[in-house]
Design brief:
The protein is globular and about 70 Å long. The chain contains 1 helix and 17 strands. By secondary structure, the protein is mainly beta. A 7-stranded antiparallel β-sheet has the order 9-16-10-13-14-15-17, with no helix packed on it. The longest helix has 6 residues, at about 210-215. The two termini are about 45 Å apart.
Length: about 290
Amino acid sequence: MAIKSFRPLTPSGRFTSLNHRTVLSKKEPERGLTESKSSSGGRNVYGRVTSRHRGGGHKRRCRIIDFKRDILDQRARVQAIEYDPNRTANLALIAYSNGEKRYILAPEGLEVGATIVTSNQATTNDFLVGNNYPLEIIPPSTRVHAVELTPGRGAQIARSAGASLELVAVENGQAQLKMPSGELRFVHPKCRATIGVVGNGDHNKQSLGKAGRKRWLGKRPHVRGMAMNPVDHPNGGGQGKSKGGGGRQQLVSPWGQLAKGFPTRARTKVSNRFIILHHNGRKPRNQK
């Protein structure tokens, strides 16, 4: 999706660059495929703030997305490409031959009127954008998205705008995937994946232009720790940007938890045994 810039008729418009939504063919969602969504404002069941800088924002309805793609061997026609306020990717409204409608993530290159299919078998010419197959029958070096981690659970990997994985190989009863971070990992070959790259890849090139648009997204102001006083944050204090304080220390949270420079993944995590190569080029501890 192309990026649209604006004439600098207002101070905010001077720096605003947004997605040009000419590719979207429908403004209102399919009512039967939505459900109500309540906002917590970052608060838990006791009303205490556990995730800061959240609150407000425009009212949204949650789109029910078919991440399982469990209707097999029925052709589905793309009826519309729609905006989803709950994610960076756009959605494709598809209608199966039996009349049932579903939402799926809209991959790059999928257009209104196209026909897609979900199946467990395919020929050489069937690996088109939007089709869904098990990893074991997809050719190597194919770009895929919306990949399952466990067969039948539904897509969990590569679901954001512009994301995709590379199917490296399927051998010895394991499918080898290369993640966007560069990590290599094993996945069960029966896991399903959709051909192509998630659309709306220019999403990260947007410039909101003003603070109000950030508030529409439900994001409240974020004050830097080094701009606070020492009583309010470990990085606060100092006369200007002093070396003794004012954020020159190692970056931490307001409660002293390190923010950078230490691993956040548990060493004892069960799925560690499926990782072949970490994103930083290191091999797991259990491999030589």
